[in-house]
Specification:
Blueprint (H helix, E strand, L loop, with lengths): L2 E5 L2 E4 L4 E8 L7 E7 L6 E6 L6 E3 L7 E6 L4 E6 L8 E8 L16 E2 L3 E6 L1
């Protein structure tokens, strides 16, 4: 079992940057695949980025490729999402999620495949 706590959200102007953090507590950090999702009211959660166990592969939604970067700091048991060139369409609540099973192929984009979720952090990008 792992507990996840997101932080780093806030209000930023279009073109600006934010770095989200997902701190993991419990379990063995390198045993978990971790992903970032985002959600706006009334809509389903959307996969944003994924990083595999250990030094696993990373994946990104097409809408954020070239702008967002996912990374891990194993010493801090923390996953980051560096968000640059933010757009108003990036406005959402961002969640991190973790699971011990790797999410192969398109599975990483499916929220129900993950067992553990953080509470989310709000990102608002003004035009």
């Amino acid at each position: 079992e792992v507990q996840l706590v997101e932080s780093g959200g806030g209000l930023v102007q279009a073109g600006g940057s934010l770095r989200l953090s997902c701190a993991a507590f419990g379990g063995t950090f390198d045993e978990y695949a971790i992903a970032w999702f985002r959600q706006v009211p009334g809509k389903a959660r959307e996969g944003v980025s994924y990083i595999g166990k250990g030094a696993g592969s990373t994946y990104y939604a097409d809408s954020v490729k070239g702008r967002f970067t996912i990374s891990k700091d194993n010493a801090k048991n923390t996953v980051y999402l560096q968000m640059n060139s933010l757009k108003p369409d990036d406005t959402a609540v961002y969640y991190c999620t973790a699971d011990m099973d790797p999410k192969l192929g398109g599975l990483w984009r499916i929220p129900s495949k993950y067992n553990y979720w953080g509470q989310g952090t709000q990102v608002t990008v003004s035009s």
